[in-house]
Amino acid sequence: MNRIGDTVGPMVAGLIRRAGAAMTLRRAGVPSYDPQTGDVSETTLDIALFGVIDEVETGHTDGVVRRGDRVVTVAARDLQIDPAPGDELVIAGNIHRIVSD
Question: 19-41: per-residue pLDDT in tens?
Fold first, then answer.
């Protein structure tokens, strides 16, 4: 980070924790196959974090963000991986798919 990021980053992360909601960033792992049992097990990587959720009231002209979508802001310093399309956010037990980063 730079000097501004080092100074402001912890403050922003603290504000997001106080004003935001607890959520889990979930990424599907590579399925594994057990040849002895024939079972396929799926793994996931779960990362706990906090984010501020904004409801989209009107669509954007680019068509990517539509009315009813949610935009979530998280502190970059809390991320262990970069969210990518196909990942999920679990918020209050509800699963939301990330469609754009």
Answer: 889 999 999 988 889 899 999 99
